[in-house]
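Researcher: Sequence recovery benchmark, item below. Answer with residues only.
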């Protein structure tokens, strides 16, 4: 009787039973080959030769589930106007890909999780989650004030808010000539990719 017990490795394995008699005469023989966990089982062999007492043997092929490798690649960063990706990959024997998933995004609102799982019977159940996290950037506020004595000329003040790659997020200006034109010029943004 030749048994086999091992973890799934994508290779074929064989068990066998051989019954021999006088002068090593083979009275009965059989074998069973399997690669997958589902191929596991027993192999009974017996004889009913009147020249021999009853004889039998059973070989057992046992292939147990392997452990898959879960690789999660997260991304965390401040909004920069570029696309970023988080991935999760599950691989098995020999680097075979069993499952994978990804999540890509450019904006803060595209942040989130992505999951993958496998229920391949040749592997223990496996799953993983990767996270894409894009946080708000800080915008640059440029203020141009004016203070002076009335001179009958027009004067302008302005506010400009710029973001990544000098993108103008908001801008406004106010022009005045008279004392009565004096005042403030408030401006703000509510873009989720930027801090208030």
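Model:
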């Amino acid at each position: 009787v030749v048994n086999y017990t091992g973890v799934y490795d994508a290779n074929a394995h064989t068990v066998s039973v051989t019954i021999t008699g006088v002068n090593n005469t083979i009275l009965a023989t059989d074998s069973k080959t399997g690669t997958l966990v589902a191929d596991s089982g027993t192999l009974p062999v017996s004889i009913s030769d009147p020249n021999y007492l009853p004889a039998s043997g059973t070989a057992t092929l046992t292939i147990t589930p392997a452990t898959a490798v879960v690789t999660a690649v997260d991304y965390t960063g401040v909004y920069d106007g570029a696309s970023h990706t988080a991935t999760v990959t599950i691989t098995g024997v020999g680097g075979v890909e069993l499952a994978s998933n990804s999540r890509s995004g450019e904006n803060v609102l595209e942040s989130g999780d992505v999951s993958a799982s496998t229920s391949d019977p040749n592997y223990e159940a496996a799953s993983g989650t990767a996270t894409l996290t894009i946080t708000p950037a800080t915008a640059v506020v440029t203020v141009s004030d004016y203070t002076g004595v009335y001179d009958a000329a027009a004067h302008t003040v302005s506010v400009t808010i710029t973001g990544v790659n000098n993108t103008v997020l908001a801008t406004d200006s106010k022009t005045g000539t008279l004392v009565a034109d004096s005042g403030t010029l408030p401006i703000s943004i509510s873009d989720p990719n930027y801090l208030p």
